[in-house]
Amino acid sequence: MKSLRNTALGLALGVVGASAASAESLTIAIVNNGHMINMQSVAEAYTAETGVELNWVALEEGVLREQVTSDTATGGGQYDIINIGMQEAPIWGAAGWIEPLEFGADYDVNDILPAMRAGLSHEGTLYAAPFYGESSMVMYRKDLTDAAGVTIKDNDSWARVMQAAAAMHDPDNGVYGACLRGKPGWGDNMAFITTVVNSFGGAWFDADGRPQLDSPMWNQAVNFYVDLLGNYGPPGSEGNSFNEILALYNEDKCGLWIDATIAASFLENDNVAYAQSPNAGVAAGANWLWAWAMAVPAGSPNSEAAMDFIEWATSKEYVQAVGNHPDFGWGSVPTGQRASTYAIPEFKAAAGFAAAEMAAIDSAAPAASDIKPYVGVQFAAIPEFPEVGSAVAQEMAAALSGAKSVEDALAAAQAAADAIMSEAGYY
Q1: Distances from the Cα of 137 to the Cαs of 25, 113, 173, 357, in angstroms?
Q2: Are 338 and 111 in contact (CB under 8 A)?
Q3: Rounded to two decimals, what is the model's pTM?
Q4: All structural domains of the chain
């Protein structure tokens, strides 16, 4: 019998290098979020300096996870550099799927925020370098809350969030009270739903790895989620991920959005305001912790050149390059990865979200606890979680779309999770 607690606690939460020129090209798999797309333009200078051609494969995050996991686990060798996060990095590092990262002294690894460094390491060794880091928070239209006579406070109750969404909801004029992730995926709808479950005092598993999806806390949290988004969300929410909601928000169609703090870099409405994530009485775990990071698959023939590129792309110099880039500027630099970024005067002047973002990152609680006996906020840092999370995600999308009742969806989710964890030998 495995102990989930023991498994979880075993996991720790300038152009560089002449050797880059020894590789003619690098193939890089990235998530198709704004900062990653911007990197393709910024990195033209890297190619000009080193001669290394960069071949970008930009994928939607669910597709990226599937393809990168399959290729890395089998040693397929399709990519020289991959985007992964805190769920994968410690586990894949321990399994030998990705290379340990070693950088020069000028890189200043201690400048990386401790939460990010810990979450991307195993037994003190860094296996992925954060390109940007994030927690989650409320982003809302203050002009709409003011007009409706409602307020959204830091760590507000879910009931008050529901009231605010209802007050702003005006579908006849194209405004929806709440825009939230509904697309199925362990890092999509389940990222948000898990924070709601956490705030209701629920958890994915007990200390022996037994799924807890049939608990009253899961029932309360998922019913709340379905009611909130079903009554006050845009049509077709079960198909919406980060990029779809970002587009809706920038078309002035969302009253509030609870999602990654990094989204604030790309919000265009002048009336946006921020609040720390709401909870239902259990504040720990109400806001997630994540980093989109860069890693080198084990056995890559271009590993040295790949590490050179990662050292540059996650450096202080890269932040300066984005801030001084004519197409981007200081409001568009990747955040949540380095402490020094938050001390740059130009960044502080441009980023009205910075204080709220840092507060969210600092308050995230990935450590195992009596309520949540595993490492991770919106995920569990065990190898089986992606399979479990993906199966449950499909059931939650079915509940949101009305294809199943919440009770039937949770029963099916519990059965699927139980089968996976039992087969894995937890009990």
Answers
A1: 38, 18, 26, 8
A2: yes
A3: 0.93
A4: 11-134+290-351 (3.40.190.10), 136-288+367-423 (3.40.190.10)
